[in-house]
Amino acid sequence: MNDAGGNSTVGHSIPVPVVRSGGFAWAQKRWPEIPTLKYGPPPLITKLPVALHLLIALFVLAALASAVVYAIEFFARADMDPLPSAVLGLTPLAATAGVLAVGLRRIDLASGLSSLLFASFAIVLSLGSFFMSIPALVWPDGPSGMFTAFEVHNLIVLVANLIVLALGATTWRILDRRVSHFAALRDGYMSAFRTANPDGRRQRKFARSHTNLDDDSRKLERRVAVAERRTAPLLEQLLLMPGVAIIEGLHFPGVPNAHVGHAIVASNQIALIDSYLWLPGEYHMDSWGRVLRDGKIDENIDVKTGVAAERYAFNRPSLEIRAWAVVHCLTDGELAISCDPGNEMHLVSADDMLEQVGDWLAPVGEIVDLFPLQFAVDSRRD
Question: Three-class SS string for the chain?
Answer without folding.
Answer: CCCCCCCCCCCCCCCCCCCCHHHCCHHHCCCCCCCEECCCCCCCCCCCCHHHHHHHHHHHHHHHHHHHHHHHHHHHCCCCCHHHHHHHHHHHHHHHHHHHHHHHHHCCCCHHHHHHHHHHHHHHHHHHHHHHCHHHHHCCCCCCHHHCCCCCCHHHHHHHHHHHHHHHHHHHHHHHHHHHHHHHHHHHHHHHHHHHCHHHCCCCEECCCCCCCCCCCCHHHHHHHHHHHHHHHHHHHHHHCCCCEEEEEEECCCCCCCEEEEEEEECCEEEEEEEEEECCEEEEECCCCCEEECCEECCCCCCCHHHHHHHHHCCCCCCEEEEEEEEEECCCCCEEEEECCCCCEEEECHHHHHHHHHHHHHHHCCEECHHHHHHHHHCECC
